[in-house]
Write a structure and sequence with these properties.
Mean pLDDT: 89
Strand order of the largest sheet: 2-4-5-9-8-7-6
Strand content: 15-25%
Number of domains: 1
Low-confidence stretches: 7-24
Distance between the termini: 58 Å
Shape: globular
Order of helices and strands: HEHEEHEEHEEEE
Length: about 160
């Protein structure tokens, strides 16, 4: 057994608290399987569709929720409750979306929502702050909670950084 004395004891005493207060690394976002996310959406009255009537996340044209962030699902549900709009998700984590950056469809941060009715356009443009234009020309709106809504030609491309609307 070693006995700590002098400078070694002082060094150990000073270093120990630093080890206890060192910041933890950011954890990866919690994910859903396709089935679990679909169940959450269904229970909240959020529907979805795909142009190919499939949910394979490796097939373009499908609508998949495989590995979608739990906060993305919660955000979409919170948006439905706040807006009282009919929500139809037309894009999730499936291949075929841009892979540029961290906050992508594939990484679970985004969903696309249909604009079959004017409810989404009206709610987003009246309740969220206009925040510029994306490189592709999509007008951007930011919710008070920091989520970004991009109006593309045929749908809203929404990035959820948290589980709020």
């Amino acid at each position: 057994m070693r006995t700590w004395t002098g400078p070694a004891l002082l060094a150990a005493a000073v270093a120990a608290p630093l080890l206890l207060v060192a910041p933890a690394a950011d954890a990866a976002p919690a994910k859903y399987t396709h089935t679990a996310a679909a169940q959450q959406f269904r229970a909240a009255g959020v529907s979805w569709t795909s142009s190919r009537n499939c949910s394979d996340w490796n097939r373009k044209g499908c609508t998949s929720f495989t590995n979608i962030n739990r906060t993305t699902v919660a955000g979409a549900i919170a948006f439905k409750k706040a807006s009282r709009c009919t929500i139809v998700v037309t894009g999730g984590t499936e291949t075929g979306h841009s892979t540029r950056g961290t906050y992508t469809h594939r990484n679970g941060y985004k969903v696309d929502m249909s604009v079959r009715t004017s409810c989404l356009d009206t709610y987003i443009t009246k309740h969220y702050k206009k925040s510029g234009t994306r490189r592709d020309g999509a007008k951007l709106y930011t919710s008070p909670n920091g989520n970004v809504y991009a109006r593309e030609k045929h749908h809203w491309d929404i990035t959820y950084y948290n589980g709020k609307a």
